[in-house]
Amino acid sequence: MGKVEVGFWEIEKIIGKFAGDNKDFLDKVEFVVGVSRGGLVPAALLAAKIDKPLAAAYINKQDEIFFDRGEWIAGKNVLVVDDVIRSGKTLWLVKNHLQKCCRPKSISFFVLFKVKSLQNEDYRIQSFSREIDEDVVFPWD
Fold first, then answer.
1. Which of 14, 15, 45, 117 has its CA 20 to 30 A from that of 8?
2. What is the pLDDT, as a whole number, of residue 40?
3. What is the CATH number of the domain that holds 14?
4. Structurally, how many domains does the chain consist of?
5. Dihedral (CA of 32, 132, 2, 13) sign
6. Residue 64 neighbours by CB under 8 Å, 6+ apart
7. Helix boundaries (H) for 4-140
């Protein structure tokens, strides 16, 4: 498996295109949640671009999630942002945690890159810039 390096300029371009192509959807989003660590930068860029509040969900090596802003997203339309989806495990963990602790009205997902082999439809990924077979190296790696 090869590697693809992605720079900040490309990430900003992806965020800009997503925001421009999904204005109606993003108008309904009330909160952006960035998945630590890789999703925080794109989530912050997107939240600033669409003028929505941002919070971070941190996942440790034991798959425990730390999210202390549950009252902020209760009953709201939430967009979870991550940099890459490889297996779907992270999104599954975040989705289940947010549903249990916070009860948002809806949870959607935006990832910069999606590995082609992922076929799980449970995640309702709103958008991704492209499917990949290679490993992605981000500026924060």
1. 117
2. 94
3. 3.40.50.2020
4. 1
5. negative
6. none
7. 8-21, 23-28, 40-50, 70-73, 89-101
